[in-house]
Amino acid sequence: MALTQVSSNKCSGGYQKVFEHDSTELKCKMKFAVYLPPKAESGKRPVMYWLSGLTCTEQNFITKAGSQQAASEHGIILVAPDTSPRGCNIEGEDESWDFGSGAGFYVNATQEPWKTNYRMYSYITEELPKLINANFPADPERISVSGHSMGGHGALICALKNPGKYKAVSAFAPICNPIQCAWGQKAFSGYLGAEKASWEEYDATVLAASYSGPQLDILIDQGRDDQFLSASQLLPDNLIAACSEKKIPVVFRLQPGYDHSYFFIYSFINDHIKHHAKFLNA
């Protein structure tokens, strides 16, 4: 699949690039960002996939998180895709900020009119990694996943649904139990329909409760002053309880004074990349 380079900037000794391609899963043009650390010039490097939150594109993480320095030091390629298909001319796709464009929720939709294009789960777990492995010095055996908010939900479900595929997983303020919160209920009813059993396939808390696979060490940072935590959109306690029941190790850090923004991510991204490096470079 042909890639078109959109931009390239020298950064922390490596290169921050953005590419565009025609997605077979999503049936539209998609952009993704890739950071190539200096070590990528001399051999295959591990890859950390970053999944962004509601309303984001591939730009938010690469311009606001300050992730490149740590990725450069640890020799990790960073890949940050967009958060939904774009320009599909589906009626209603741009009507709300928490459904449709910028809000793919990392599921494979089963309902009309979304099911043809809104296949973000398969895009993230299958199409994009193949593209990265074919076009960049990426080690396909060493991949991990992280994300924020809706993307934290995406990272957790990708890791829990594919035991052994991802060497590490972490999240910032993830939507931990979407079937129990307003954001998740809106998205899942629209993309997956009324059948609640299909929702459970994309809920980290439900997936953790039935997880059986290699040990997965989860790191989660959550701002204590996050307005969406107090609005019961994130529900981390439910996930922690499920993980504790299954003896899945979770380091959960409630960070006083921090909110839901990229200022929060910027403050702790180095810890997360270090967490991923521990398992990717083992």
Automatic annotation (TrEMBL):
Keywords: Cytoplasm, Hydrolase, Serine esterase. SUPFAM superfamilies: alpha/beta-Hydrolases. The active site is at 149 (charge relay system), 226 (charge relay system), 260 (charge relay system). GO terms for cellular component: cytosol. InterPro entries: AB_hydrolase_fold (IPR029058), Esterase-like (IPR000801), S-formylglutathione_hydrol (IPR014186). GO terms for biological process: formaldehyde catabolic process. It is an enzyme of class 3 (hydrolase). The keyword Cytoplasm applies. One of its GO terms (molecular function) is S-formylglutathione hydrolase activity. It holds the Pfam family Esterase. It is found in: Cytoplasm. The keyword Isomerase does not apply. Its main location: cytoplasm. Its EC number is 3.1.2.12. Belongs to the esterase D family. This is S-formylglutathione hydrolase. The lineage of its organism: Eukaryota, Metazoa, Chordata, Craniata, Vertebrata.
